[in-house]
Design a protein that fits this description.
Length: 520
């Protein structure tokens, strides 16, 4: 008998996942306003290339204004001299592009309806939720850090590094920030092959290079680089929260729970690093962007974000593993998809050799990023893995998870739980962060799928095996699938309590970090 065939979930749009439907949960989806129509009809709208030229012109004008205010900069990148000191050249180039664009496509330019588009975008739940979470948590934590410095003081009386006598100006100069600052100002240096000597090559280039550009544009003073690094960290965190909201909404089919995921990750006890001059914000942005676009098979964008992750941190290459699992999802058994076996990742239309090859190529982008940096280090030092060997100077040598567990068990059995918590409090704090994400791995697999759980495991277990609990709290803060799962299971009545508890511990951690106590 012929009749209308029911469309599978991936043909129905972004509908709720199967597990939510089976549970009887009624998703709460808000209506996202579409951008207002232009006064001109669609027949006179410019093509995509014309829109891109419009955007490029606006960017050039903005950069010209910044160069005029700051004086511009000169620098060398891989031996190539780059100078940007004349705003007039930028303005002339922008004018030439604008003229060519209007001669080739005399239609409505993007800046004509840009304000209306911005207003419409700002009204969307992802943008507004991300902004609220950013402003209310980041500036509160920075304020707590400043108060801790002026009221509690530094651990040793004075900070080991200072760029200004003003404590507010100097607030962001903490721990690894000094390494990123040095790379941004002077580039990479390799002085000694001895494993005990700390080298800046262990810090990957994406964040310090962005910091270099921002610092140069802001005038080139020492404090300009710190201010530029802070702006990059906060901007990347805001963008990452938008991606997190959109990804969580796709997976949970619920705006309320998506917003909860955003607030949970912003309030997490180790989220203080999202406002510091550290790589966490950029890593989170790249990871959430790669997952969001990859599951939609927007592979060029996914590869671009993946490449950024590979150039941001040493473990960035491991993002290729969960992305590869998403690439083979149409062929993989249903249990790999957890509670969403009918999700968009398993769309049968993607079950072609061409789709597989392009998806695997995009999944390789994070690994390619690490290979590119390794090639640069090979040219600098003569060894492509000198950056990996350099971690030994920070006490990161492979010992295995068994040794870690045995050491902590022996310590607690001798000193007792009170002795452990009172003598190794930083160890305890980091361990709790690791315990949270490790405990989430299995339920994340069951609810969201293997790729999300594997992302957690490959980013937390290797650093624990090679460095114990050193900094694993910070590493746990970027493992976003744990927060999506947590937002899905916490009842609405309990959310405020969890957020308050998270923020209380984050404030305490901020006091430790900004007074140069051992939390990094």
């Amino acid at each position: 008998m012929l009749g209308r065939r029911a469309l599978p979930p991936w043909r129905r749009g972004s509908g709720p996942s199967n597990d939510l439907l089976k549970s009887g949960h009624q998703p709460r989806m808000s209506v996202i306003p579409a951008p207002p129509a232009s006064s001109s009809d669609s027949s006179v709208q410019p093509g995509r290339w014309a829109r891109r030229l419009d955007v490029l012109c606006l960017i050039l004008v903005l950069v010209a204004v910044i160069v005029a205010a700051s004086g511009g900069f000169r620098m060398r990148v891989a031996g190539v001299r780059i100078a940007l000191t004349s705003p007039y050249r930028l303005m002339a180039f922008a004018a030439a592009l604008a003229l060519a664009r209007h001669l080739l496509s005399p239609r409505v330019p993007i800046y004509r309806d840009l304000p209306a588009r911005i207003v419409a975008w700002w009204a969307t739940p992802p943008a507004r939720t991300a902004w609220a979470a950013l402003v209310s948590t980041r500036f509160a934590i920075l304020f707590v850090g400043f108060l801790a410095v002026v009221m509690l003081g530094y651990r040793d009386g004075r900070p080991p590094l200072r760029l200004s006598e003003n404590e507010l100006v100097n607030l962001q100069v903490r721990w690894d920030t000094a390494w990123y600052f040095g790379i941004a100002v002077d580039g990479y240096r390799y002085g000694s092959p001895r494993a005990t000597d700390q080298q800046n090559i262990v810090f990957f280039p994406a964040f310090p290079m962005l910091m270099r550009v921002a610092g140069r544009l802001l005038g080139g003073a020492s404090t300009s680089f710190i201010l530029g690094g802070t702006a990059i960290a906060l901007g990347a965190f805001y963008w990452a929260l938008i991606y997190l909201f959109k990804l969580a909404r796709d997976l949970l089919a619920d705006d309320d729970r998506a917003a909860t995921a955003v607030w949970m990750i912003a309030a997490f006890p180790f989220a203080l690093f999202y406002g510091a001059v550290y790589t966490e914000s950029v890593f989170l942005l790249g990871a959430t962007g790669a997952f969001y676009h990859f599951r939609r098979r927007q592979l060029v964008k996914a590869a671009a974000w993946g490449l950024l992750v590979g150039l941001t941190r040493p473990n960035g290459c491991l993002l290729s593993i969960p992305l590869a699992l998403m690439a083979i999802a149409p062929w993989a058994p249903g249990w790999l998809s957890g509670g969403n076996p009918g999700g968009i990742e398993r769309d049968p239309s993607r079950r072609t050799v061409r789709d597989l090859v392009t998806a695997v190529a995009a999944a390789a982008a994070p690994g390619i990023g690490v290979l590119l940096y390794s090639a640069y280090i090979w040219n600098l030092t003569g060894s492509p893995l000198a950056w990996a060997a350099g971690h030994a100077a920070w006490g990161r040598e492979y010992r295995g998870l068994g040794v870690l567990l045995a050491d902590r068990y022996r310590y607690i059995s001798v000193a007792g739980l009170y002795g452990y918590t009172s003598q190794l409090p930083a160890d305890l704090l980091n361990g709790l962060g690791a315990l949270f994400v490790l405990g989430a791995a299995w339920p994340v697999w069951r609810r969201l799928g293997a790729a999300y759980a594997v992302f957690i495991l490959v980013n937390i277990l290797p650093p624990m095996a090679a460095g114990g609990l050193l900094s694993v709290g910070r590493f746990s803060s970027v493992l976003f699938p744990a927060f999506i799962w947590f937002a899905a299971i916490v009842p609405a009545a309990h959310r405020a309590g969890w957020l308050g508890a998270f923020m209380a511990v984050q404030g305490f951690n901020a006091a430790l970090f900004y007074t140069w106590r051992e939390l990094f």
